[in-house]
């Protein structure tokens, strides 16, 4: 059970953290962040409590209450999943932003290098015109010097671009890119689908372990209400000792001592244990318990199904009636 409790706590904590990432980003004011953070925690804890209550009411066969608890859980789960989607998406966007900033710097250098290439191409066209005009000494020489400066500037920009630190692509970003390429969709669409899937999976994972803990607690409570198993020790009846006759012999006189037979008194037979029906009748007649199923269950230490059968029999015999407010009234057993 320690493992189950650990997984449950970790999943609930992760769900709360992802919801906090979204709710805390709504407003920059610290007071509003505290309010929204508390709201996120209330939503998360209320969601799992509603799921636990759904299991409890379903176990008690209160299907109307179970439906209402499930509806309440569905509303809180939708809010929680939305918060988790926003939180995971925010964390993913933050990781993607670092890659985008670095890529924008590289793109800026590439644009400058491309602009220098265009300028060199224009200078070459102007040099051809100077050659056609036979003004090589005045025009072409100047253009060549300008091109040399531009090429040196281009080399400097390329060196600065190559010296930028390489930003390692995270596993999540790589997964999103792979999904986008395999599904032929945009990166944002693949990111949204992955975030929604992870949020729903996290919520169902936590709900599963909360339900598992509820089942374990219900099993323990039911086991404690049952009678403990006992092993009766079987004792063999002791045989009655045989009476011996002690004879003392002497040379002239013989004395014989007779021991009277002693018949043991018969032991009283043990009373047969009373049935649950008789125990309940005696307890209700003596006002030892109230005329409620809960009180009788605690007194007899039996399951609720057996108590339901007892009360059904009481109502058939007319010794118990049901009031309009669903409470039971004890009328007593007619004297025989």
TrEMBL record:
Q: What domain of life does the UniProt record list for this protein's source?
A: Bacteria
Q: Which UniProt keywords apply?
A: Membrane, Transmembrane, Transmembrane helix
* Annotated coiled-coil segments of the chain: none
Look up the signal peptide feature and give its range: none
Record field: transmembrane: 7-26, 32-51, 63-83, 192-214
The segments labelled Disordered in the record are: 245-273
Indicate what this protein is called per its UniProt record: Preprotein translocase subunit SecY
Biological source species: Photobacterium aphoticum
């Amino acid at each position: 059970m320690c493992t189950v409790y650990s997984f449950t706590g970790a999943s609930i904590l992760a769900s709360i953290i992802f919801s906090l990432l979204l709710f805390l980003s709504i407003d920059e004011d610290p007071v509003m962040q505290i309010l929204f953070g508390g709201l996120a925690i209330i939503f998360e804890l209320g969601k799992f409590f509603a799921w636990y209550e759904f299991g409890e009411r379903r176990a008690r066969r209160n299907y109307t209450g179970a439906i209402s608890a499930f509806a309440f859980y569905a509303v809180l789960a939708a809010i929680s999943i939305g918060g988790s989607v926003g939180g995971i998406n925010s964390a993913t966007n933050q990781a993607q932003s670092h890659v985008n900033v670095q890529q924008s710097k590289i793109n800026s250098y590439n644009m400058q290098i491309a602009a220098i290439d265009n300028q060199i191409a224009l200078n070459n066209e102007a040099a051809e015109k100077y050659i056609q005009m036979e003004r090589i000494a005045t025009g072409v020489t100047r253009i060549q010097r300008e091109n040399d400066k531009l090429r040196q500037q281009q080399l400097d920009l390329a060196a600065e671009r190559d010296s930028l630190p390489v930003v390692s692509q995270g596993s999540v970003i790589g997964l999103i890119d792979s999904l986008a390429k395999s599904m032929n969709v945009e990166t944002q669409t693949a990111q949204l689908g992955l975030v929604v899937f992870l949020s729903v999976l996290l919520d169902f994972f936590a709900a599963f372990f909360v339900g598992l803990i509820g089942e374990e607690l219900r099993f323990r409570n039911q086991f404690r209400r049952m009678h403990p198993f006992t092993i009766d020790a079987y004792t063999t009846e002791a045989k009655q000792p045989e009476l011996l006759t002690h004879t003392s012999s002497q040379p002239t006189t013989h004395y014989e001592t007779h021991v009277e037979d002693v018949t043991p008194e018969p032991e009283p037979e043990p009373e047969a244990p009373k049935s649950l029906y008789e125990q309940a009748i005696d307890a209700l007649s003596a006002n030892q318990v109230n005329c409620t199923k809960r009180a009788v269950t605690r007194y007899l230490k039996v399951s609720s199904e057996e108590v339901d059968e007892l009360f059904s029999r009481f109502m058939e015999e007319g010794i118990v009636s049901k009031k309009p407010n669903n409470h039971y009234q004890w009328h007593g057993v007619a004297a025989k």
